[in-house]
Input
Amino acid sequence: MTKLIECIPNFSTSDTELIKGLVEISKSIPGVTLLDYSADDSHNRAVFTLVGDENGIKTVAVKLAVFAKDNIDLTKHTGEHPRMGAVDVMPFVPVKNATMEQCIEISKEVGEMIFKEAGIPVFFYESSATAPNRQNLATIRKGQFEGMAEKMKKPEWKPDFGDNAPHPTAGVVAVGARPPLVAFNVNLNTDNLTIANNIAKIVRGSSGGFKHCKGIGVMLEDRKIAQVSMNMVNYEGTPLYRVFETIKMEAKRYGVSIIGSEIIGLAPAKALVDCAEYYLQIEDFDYDKQILENHLL
Amino acid sequence: MTKLIECIPNFSTSDTELIKGLVEISKSIPGVTLLDYSADDSHNRAVFTLVGDENGIKTVAVKLAVFAKDNIDLTKHTGEHPRMGAVDVMPFVPVKNATMEQCIEISKEVGEMIFKEAGIPVFFYESSATAPNRQNLATIRKGQFEGMAEKMKKPEWKPDFGDNAPHPTAGVVAVGARPPLVAFNVNLNTDNLTIANNIAKIVRGSSGGFKHCKGIGVMLEDRKIAQVSMNMVNYEGTPLYRVFETIKMEAKRYGVSIIGSEIIGLAPAKALVDCAEYYLQIEDFDYDKQILENHLL
Output
């Protein structure tokens, strides 16, 4: 059975010509499919979603990193999104017939090749981290591209591959394996951002909430509503419905209710089927055996 | 893109040797996968779930019908489940890259071949029906094997292929295209079967309820609870959550609540993802684009 691995590289550009180049590379490797890509000018960032077999995904990941190093100059980069590299982060996710251990292995091989072929220093993060303070991307990225030279002089910030200094124009990259992530936002019928922030603090793991939930409050200016914006970084450990019901419960304190939610980008079917199982009170459901499509993949 | 079509033939046997023969045929056709099969002695019936490309599924369907005709003798058949043929019913369901119209076409070709190769008269049913009174399987099957010779003398019960009389030992078969069906049962915290029957009457289309829901009350003797047992014959037209919430609402009249539910056999992921969309209040969800697995099939 062919292993299928997802790779979601983030690039620090929204230039249409460069994106065209990245798309061409993405489509040039046998065994690799480009599922989705999007870019945002205010963030000055592009996110690609690729899926492929083990060899294909390794090959395309390294080629994309080399292209980013050759074409993106961080010394001239501005944008709202925090970033530390031309290819900023490169996660590998098990999709089918692949384990987290295999994705860790792949991330380590790709990290080594990126340093060898592009000269970009590599930090392993998430499940591939070589130290506890390297698990969280935000911790590695703190100081961003501009602060990286100083930060990397400290022994605890020696990269996993490469020298104690960032690439002069391409910075550094975080490479690692992680479970599939679901971007899940919940909209409140209030324009009070403080309420969304308070609720985000309650549900996210870092401040005492659900371990596998990251979240902040954001204001949707066009709709004049506050939103709890979340990354569900492990939807089996922290299911979407549990966070949704907790938000509903906490919002009551303010007389606020949920007016809707959104899933951004792709989500594995199981993240949502698990929610249906809860709400419909389905007994003894076997996802692998009872979902028709699982027999067709 | 390869069309994938599901076929779920029901055979009037639970004999292990015959089932072995049916399994062997199911596994012998390139392009066809046997997803599941189960047999029940008290019903004296076996249900097979196969999926395959257009040519494969047509070939296997006809071969299975010929085997059933050669090996199952309805004149000696007893069992709780109503039946009219050795192969009793043979639905075709669009699974991927296939339309209902294509499945109707396939069902008509298979029906013709079954009569030619096995000599079994064929009624087209569901979306393939050639008259309104032939849509519902139960209407065609009324009178069962024993009453079929008399019934088929009436002009309105002339089969779509074959003579005005059943095959002497293999009876007749209903062949047709239909949407995927989900077997969905809801358990009540009561041992009063009348309550389950009353609620089934409310939710099923035939007595004024939801158009694409069939249902009866049944008693789960081992658990001493009553159940609303349903076939959701078109989960897009009548979603599971809507029926579930209606059952909950109607059960309140009796001070009864839902203690659980079950999905029997296979269900398409969308039938459950649609429910998660409702309960999580997800706005603007695009199932085809946003479910990761849809890009892998």
